[in-house]
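User: My collaborator and I are trying to settle a disagreement about how two of our proteins should look. Neither of us wants to argue from intuition anymore, so we agreed to look at predicted structures for both before our next call. Could you fold the first one, then the second, and keep them clearly separated?

Assistant: That sounds like a sensible way to settle it. I'll keep them separate. The first protein:
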Amino acid sequence: MSMDDREWMRREREERFQAGRARARARAARSSHLAYPCLILLLVAVAGCCIWRGWYYKPPAAASVTAHDPAPPEPLPRSLAPAPVAGTIPAPRVSPPPHVQTPKPAPQGLVSQAYLERFRAERARPRAQANTFEEQDSQWIDSWDHRQRYLAHWSISDNSIDGTSVCDNHRRGSIEYRECRKGAKVFFREQCRSWASRASDDGQPWSERMKARYCSADSAFSPL
């Protein structure tokens, strides 16, 4: 292919390209010319609708749902009111009773301070043990100088010797009573040592019980 042919084809392509662009511009121009009138017509239609709605259209009034109390009947004029019958007593006009304010009841569940303090004092007071086991015991004991022997009685409550009952078989304040109690103090100490040694050897419950009885009496009993 010669140079003239190629040049001719190039020019033909350029001409076609330029012709296509010209046709596209013409179509765009025609479209824009048609779009403007349509837009103007649409705006005019919308404005007319708004004007008509504002001038001629009135929304219906909402129905009131508020309930009104019926008006009281108007009194009859005196000319139309029935005349009272002769010999009858007109009924007295009853006025509404006055409003009496009832006192509010006192709140339940509240107690006085004195009752609360008494309750706390009774709760803090040690209660007497129920079903306590009491027994009596008697032993021949020597006096503290081992010159005399006395028969001593005492009471036992829950394996604890009552110190006030020791030697109560003698007259209180007498020489025998005082010497008996002094000897009982020595007797309790000796029995505490004896049962403690026996309990450590055999470990029997009875030995432990007697050890607790006499050792507690040895530490708590006072002959005076």
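The second protein, kept apart from the first:
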Amino acid sequence: MSIRSLIFASPLFRLFWLGLVLAAVSGNSLAAKQSLTPVAGKPPAPAFSLKDMDGETHRLSDFRGKAVIVNFWATWCPPCRAELPSMNRAWTNLKNDDVVMIAINVGEDEDTIFSFMGDYPIDFLTLMDQDSRVIGNWPVKGLPTTFVVDPQGQLIYRAIGSREWDDPNLLEMVRQLNQKK
């Protein structure tokens, strides 16, 4: 198999191109897409164990009993960059509401993420899926993809493409999950 066919067959390459397509499509219709899509059947969220930038390991199960927003992203992804400032603003609004927000970087190393965060700060928990094993267990269609997990550990909502996460309607949808405990 040639190097070219290996590159084009790579899951990360396909996510990259899908991210570019989503960026082009979502740029004009972001306001119309300020919603979250319910996940059919509310399956259990796939477990993970990942390290943060300080080397501390975090598991999804550590957050059982709380609503959790899980965002899959990469530094090279234009729509990921577009939504991160709104995710920080959302985090400011949610952090006292027993909600957890997690950014899972896909396929990049610590130095790349650290450099990126100089221009695009992330104030909430950032984890590294350097070998892309975790993303392969989640129903991710492209980057960014964000899931909302209920306090019982079920996938409740999914958002493919960027959102303005500080939108009051989106924040209320997440907060309501904690009221249903």
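Some points you might bring to the call about the second protein. The longest helix spans residues 11-29. Residues 3-179 form a domain with the Glutaredoxin fold (CATH 3.40.30.10).
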